[in-house]
Amino acid sequence: MNLIWNFPSTEYNLVPDEVQVWLAEFGELSEKLHEFKQILSPDERERANRYRQQRDHVRFIVARGVLRIILASYLGLSPPELEFNYSERGKPKLKKNVTEIEFNVSHSEDKALFAIALNRQVGIDIELIRPMEVLQLAKRFFRESEYLFLSALEGREKVRAFFQLWTAKEAYLKATGEGLAGLETVEISLSELESMQKLVVQGKGCSWMLQSLDLGNNYCAAIAVEGEEYKIKCWQFLS
């Protein structure tokens, strides 16, 4: 899906048939690290301090700070007022959620994506495309049909296709809260993914829509949304 990133208006509104995707880039936002850190909860600051690499420390603070600002804007609250619960696998949810907002976050290298929806589960994933032994990973985590599909490709086309499939699976599993343990239970056709067909998940009765998001040649991203009737609106987060 080709994305058109709009600048946010002064009002943040959600409607049931709409999923809003936000893009944030860490570059300039990292210069406001202190400001983002001030709006985090004590447990979030503690978690940030557990990162050994400074880069990861900074990105966690910025990503969580941006998430708080976005969610607070929808809810009419101040960012520090937000409280989160966490599932057994660590998926965050708003503790007090009378508006039924659902959200998901992913970041890779210098970009972060935030998916926001009403009354429907949503998951999002982004990955920087980088050299990897993709067939070894596909053999371990993917279904046989997906492995055979990747085996027939060459070079960068194979690597990009791997990340397209990986982000699609991850987006779905993040939406359901299953985590990486469920990777091989999800079977995806790349042609269906690119044409936004219904995601077929073995053993699952729910209807899910899965869609690739175009972020340029160096990234792959995908979004998974519960239900079928929705449209995507894209926003660029400004510092």
Salient structural properties:
alpha+beta, Ribosomal Protein L22, Chain A, 2 domains, 4-stranded mixed β-sheet, 4-stranded antiparallel β-sheet, globular
The CATH level-2 architecture of the largest domain is identified as Alpha-Beta Complex
User: For the CA atoms, what is the radius of gyration?
Assistant: 18 Å
Shape: globular
Structural class: alpha+beta
- What would CATH call the homologous superfamily of the largest domain? 4'-phosphopantetheinyl transferase domain
Q: What top-tier CATH class of the largest domain fits best?
A: Alpha Beta
**What oligomerization state is this entry in?**
single chain
Total individual domains? 2
Fraction of residues in helix: 25-40%
In percent, how much strand structure appears in the residues?
A: 15-25%
- In sequence order, what are the helices and strands, one letter per element? EHHHHEEEEEHHHHEEEE
Strand order of the largest sheet: 4-5-1-10
Number of strands: 10
CATH topology (level 3) name of the largest domain: Ribosomal Protein L22, Chain A
Distance between the termini: 26 Å
Poorly predicted tracts of residues: none
Q: What is the count of DSSP helices, taking H or I runs of 4+ residues?
A: 8
Mean pLDDT: 85
